[in-house]
């Protein structure tokens, strides 16, 4: 009886504590709704009385940032404002000019960073924690413009290879190895395997690796418009190889998706798949005996280079709380970053000495080897144009023509046609 009563007391205490936290959070949110302003059809907080205002797009970040604010030092009263990506930077500039309601910190994809930098919406990151000791060159390059750090690497996505260990004992080093495997593998004898290799062939994240070693737009940091190399012999050879794969594996780009690829792999119906960070949780929960490998080269001579998409945190130079913003952005992107995946499913850009979750170490290795999308303002639709080129190649269009058209289009966008 005493044990039962003790349990009830503990439950009551926990309930009271939870209610107190909820009231504090509710009061903070109520304060955040004091003054509102319409901007581009959205209602945005103008004056919340919060310690910091943070703008973001991805709603999955909310529990992590709120928990971080609660745990940070003596706790912070923050206002999280979800703002659509449409005219995102323009809205920040608008609020900066008005001098009220501007974000102290905002979260943005790295390919938008040059636009933010050129508009005077970034501040220099001089924090010594953001070095190659704690971040890969890929992460630091994603947060850089004009040769210097102007943001804080936060989280990323990238493409990697998975393989079913029940049928493939070792990670493939090349796609040629997968083709050799396919030529001798008896799928019918397994009773379950339907596919040798699957990936979402209409998504640049998974496709880019086939040509990534032989294209360069914007240089190392993706912000130098004088560097354009989108048409060379190795690129055309890689496009030819990619086209041959499309004919061999017969993937229908009109019906395939990253979700269907993941489902087929976790059900044991596919031997090799190309997946992204969001698939890791399902892979580990599926119970399938799998391995993770970096994106294979095409052949022994044709190399691959996977794509990564890095999201960064930026401290607004117009913030009225610069020092406080710099310290908190360090907390969420560096000091406390080990908790990011568990609360959001997003993988932190920060490196760690070890990883408890299977697969993470290899994904980080892949991230370090990957290329980022360019930040060039004039080539903001580069990823769309590149995927369109790959779609055309997949459908059988001439590879040399497609590469030449792609390069010419980008040179024209950058006004470099007469300089080449």
Mean pLDDT: 89
Tell me about the biggest sheet?
7 strands, mixed
Proper CATH architecture of the largest domain: 3-Layer(aba) Sandwich
Strand content range: 15-25%
Shape: globular
Secondary structure: number of strands = 17
- State the helicity in percent bands: 40-55%
What is the domain total for the residues?
2
> How many whole angstroms does the radius of gyration measure?
24 Å
Count of DSSP-assigned helices: 16
CATH homologous superfamily (4th level) name of the largest domain: Periplasmic binding protein-like II
Secondary-structure-based class equals alpha/beta
What is the distance, rounded to the nearest whole angstrom, between the alpha carbons of the first and last residues? 86 Å
CATH topology grouping of the largest domain:
D-Maltodextrin-Binding Protein, domain 2
Poorly predicted parts: 1-38
CATH class of the largest domain: Alpha Beta
Q: What's the layout of helices and strands?
A:
Blueprint: H1 2-31, E1 35-39, E2 42-47, E3 52-56, H2 62-71, E4 78-82, H3 88-98, E5 105-109, H4 113-118, H5 137-142, E6 144-145, E7 148-149, E8 152-158, E9 160-164, H6 175-184, H7 187-190, E10 195-198, H8 204-207, E11 216-217, E12 228-229, H9 233-249, H10 258-266, E13 270-275, H11 280-286, E14 290-293, E15 307-315, H12 322-335, H13 340-344, E16 347-348, H14 360-369, E17 371-372, H15 382-394, H16 399-413
Parallel strand pairs: 3-4, 3-5, 10-13, 15-17
Antiparallel strand pairs: 1-2, 5-15, 6-7, 8-15, 8-16, 9-13, 9-14, 11-12
């Amino acid at each position: 009886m005493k044990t039962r009563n003790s349990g009830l007391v503990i439950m009551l205490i926990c309930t009271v504590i939870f209610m107190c936290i909820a009231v504090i959070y509710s009061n903070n949110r109520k304060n955040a709704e004091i003054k509102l302003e319409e901007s581009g059809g959205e209602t945005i907080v103008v004056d919340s009385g919060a310690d910091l205002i943070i703008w973001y797009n991805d709603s999955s970040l909310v529990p992590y940032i709120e928990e971080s604010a609660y745990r940070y030092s003596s706790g912070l009263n923050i206002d999280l404002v979800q703002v659509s990506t449409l005219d995102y930077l323009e809205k920040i500039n608008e609020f900066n000019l008005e001098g009220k309601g501007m974000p102290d910190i905002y979260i943005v994809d790295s390919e938008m960073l040059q636009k933010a930098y050129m508009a005077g919406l970034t501040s220099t990151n001089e924090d010594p924690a953001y070095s190659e000791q704690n971040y890969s060159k890929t992460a630091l390059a994603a947060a850089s413009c004009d040769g210097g750090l102007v943001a804080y690497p936060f989280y990323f996505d990238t493409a990697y290879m998975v393989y079913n260990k029940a049928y493939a004992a070792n990670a493939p080093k090349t796609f040629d190895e997968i083709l050799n495997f396919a030529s001798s593998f008896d799928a019918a004898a397994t009773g379950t395997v339907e596919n040798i290799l699957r990936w979402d062939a209409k998504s640049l994240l998974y496709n880019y690796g086939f040509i990534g070693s032989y294209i360069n737009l914007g240089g190392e940091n993706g912000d130098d418009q004088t560097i354009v190399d989108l048409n060379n012999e190795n690129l055309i050879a890689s496009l030819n190889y990619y086209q041959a794969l499309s004919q061999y594996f017969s993937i229908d780009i009109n019906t395939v998706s990253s979700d269907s690829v993941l489902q087929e792999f976790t059900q044991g119906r596919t031997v090799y798949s190309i997946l992204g960070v969001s698939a890791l949780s399902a892979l580990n929960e599926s119970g399938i005996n799998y391995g993770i490998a970096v994106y294979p080269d095409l052949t022994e001579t044709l190399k691959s280079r996977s794509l990564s998409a890095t999201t960064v945190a930026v401290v607004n130079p117009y913030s009225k709380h610069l020092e406080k913003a710099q310290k908190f952005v360090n907390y969420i992107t560096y000091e406390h970053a080990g908790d990011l995946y568990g609360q959001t499913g997003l993988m932190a850009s920060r490196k760690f000495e070890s990883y408890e979750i299977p697969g993470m170490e290899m994904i980080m290795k892949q991230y370090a080897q990957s290329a980022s999308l360019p930040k060039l303002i004039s080539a903001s639709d580069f990823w769309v144009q590149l995927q369109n080129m790959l779609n055309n190649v997949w459908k059988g269009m001439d590879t040399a023509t497609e590469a030449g058209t792609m390069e010419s289009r980008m040179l024209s966008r950058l006004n470099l046609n007469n300089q080449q």
